[in-house]
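[INFO] parsing input record for Peroxynitrite isomerase
[DEBUG] input buffer:
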Amino acid sequence: MEEPEVHPDLEPIAFLLGRWEGAGVGGYPTIESFNFGQEIEFGHNGKPFLTYVSRTWLLDDAGNRVRPLATESGYWRSLPDRQIEVVLSHPTGIVEIYIGEVVFHKIELRTDVVARTASAKEYTAGHRLYGLVNGNLMWAYEMAAVGHPLTDHMSAELKKVA
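[DEBUG] output buffer:
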């Protein structure tokens, strides 16, 4: 089956398409700092949205995989006037709706809505930055959770592999 054409509405965020792999660092006031590996895949089916899946795993000091960490999946929609909407779901019982803006190869997102199941940890807000720097996808994430305001949580540098 032939790959469909990328929907024209996706032009501002088409640079995300593909599979990205790399490593990053994380931490939060309630946990020790850690190193992680990550794989992100952005896909499309010809409709005006990108599919998104992210998987992370804990790395030891030598860079070996120790165990799985977070997984999230969702959809990214580019809107007129460089606006963007992102819907993410997590297996931990959290769903987030982000709104933001695309400026060239930089995307800034803030949560508009956070919904949690009764068993999910307290999480109230997120702020994410994504950018293409020298061909690599760089991102940073701040979260507000368990009584803390928006605080740095994770960041990574990913290389396009497919």
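[INFO] The mean pLDDT is 97.
[INFO] shutting down worker
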